[in-house]
Write a structure and sequence with these properties.
Layout (H helix, E strand, L loop, with lengths): L3 E8 L2 H17 L4 H17 L8 E8 L2 E6 L4 E7 L6 H14 L5 H47 L10 H17 L6 E7 L2 H8 L1 H17 L7 E4 L4 E6 L3 H14 L4 E7 L10 H17 L5 E3 L10 E3 L5
Parallel strand pairs: 8-9, 9-10
Antiparallel strand pairs: 1-2, 2-3, 3-4, 5-7, 5-8, 6-7
Helix pairs in contact: 1-2, 6-7, 7-8
Length: about 325
């Protein structure tokens, strides 16, 4: 059965849109659609029509159609469609024709004098509503920005170690996963993982007390933050005396940064380093990547602590960084 057009109207200003929506709701009710569900759907329809240019001065053409048992609104050159309601059965053609005549008469578009009066009222209404809308939008924008600020602060707190201000273990898991996947997609991008443990931290705590221990942890955090690019790299506290760096650079540069941290901590940190290397590890995984850094860290501890070990052996390296043939 052919699609039947019930109403066509252009929607240059807000009153046109409101009239069209009212006609749509009246038609849906007369055709037997559920008035409550149709009213809810009309809210989404109004938003879509406004987004397409209705009530902005642009004479957006909109049509109310009966397609089989579906009542739909169609608009614009692209013939976008919005499903408004589904009838239990298609009405008789005589009822449809009567409704068409009623709707077209109700638009009152044929009387030039009435049209002129209506246009004057529309312009005044548009000016008034524009001022109200701009004020309301400003309030909504301010509320949205405030909410976004609160959400960002909530996320920051959830990912931050409260003592040192570094990112925490939860953030480490998220960032290392994302960073590793990015290097797998973008071949050639460098990424180094540096794991750091404070040497004999428990003994420091036991001898000098927790207040001194907290200050010592903050000293470590400061050394790490001073050694990386704040807007590029990441510093984490992943455990009591365990720390990590994600540095978007090669292992040699990571070694230099680690040497700086070691010096600032008076040589009392054990450090293990690994890096993404498609040539050496063509089938690398995140689990293996972390394991290599772990192996290098434990090699540093077994070698006497207070030193830096890189996972790659058989190559020349910077002075001050040992190499270790860790598991690939």
């Amino acid at each position: 059965m052919a699609v039947t057009e019930l109403l066509e109207q252009k929607l240059p200003v807000e009153p046109d849109l409101q009239h069209f929506l009212r006609f749509v709701l009246d038609a849906a009710t007369q055709l037997g659609a559920n008035p409550f569900s149709t009213a809810r759907a009309s809210l989404g329809l109004a938003a879509d029509l406004r987004a397409a240019g209705a009530a902005s001065g642009f004479p957006l053409p909109a049509r109310l159609l009966l397609d089989q048992r579906a009542l739909v609104v169609e608009w614009g050159e692209a013939l976008n469609r919005f499903p408004l309601a589904t009838l239990t059965q298609r009405p008789e053609m005589a009822s449809i024709q009567q409704l068409r005549r009623q709707l077209r008469q109700s638009t009152a578009m044929s009387d030039p004098d009435l049209l002129l009066q209506r246009n004057v009222a529309m312009i005044r209404y548009l000016d008034e509503t524009r001022a109200r809308t701009e004020a309301e939008l400003k309030k909504l924008q301010e509320a949205l920005e405030q909410r976004q600020t609160e959400l960002l602060e909530s996320v920051r707190q959830a990912e931050t170690d409260p003592l040192t201000g570094l990112l925490n273990r939860r953030a480490f898991d998220e960032h290392i996963d994302a960073a590793f996947k990015r290097t797998q997609r973008q071949k050639g991008e460098s990424l180094s993982l540096v794991l750091l443990d404070l040497d004999f931290f428990k003994a420091v705590n036991d001898e000098y007390g927790h207040q001194f221990g907290d200050a010592y942890l903050n000293k470590m955090a400061h050394a790490m933050q001073e050694s990386i690019r704040q807007d590029v790299d990441y510093a984490f506290r992943v455990g009591g005396d365990e720390f990590a760096l994600l540095i978007f650079t090669d292992r040699r540069t990571a070694c230099k940064k680690s040497q700086r941290i070691l010096a600032m901590m008076d040589g009392k940190v054990s450090i293990g380093i690994t890096a993404v290397s498609p040539q050496r590890y063509p089938d690398d995984t995140l689990k293996r990547f972390i394991k290599r850094a772990d192996n290098a860290l434990y090699a540093a501890k077994r070698g006497g602590r207070g030193q830096i070990v890189m996972d790659r052996c058989g190559v020349s390296t910077n002075k001050g960084c040992r190499v270790f043939c860790g598991e690939g």
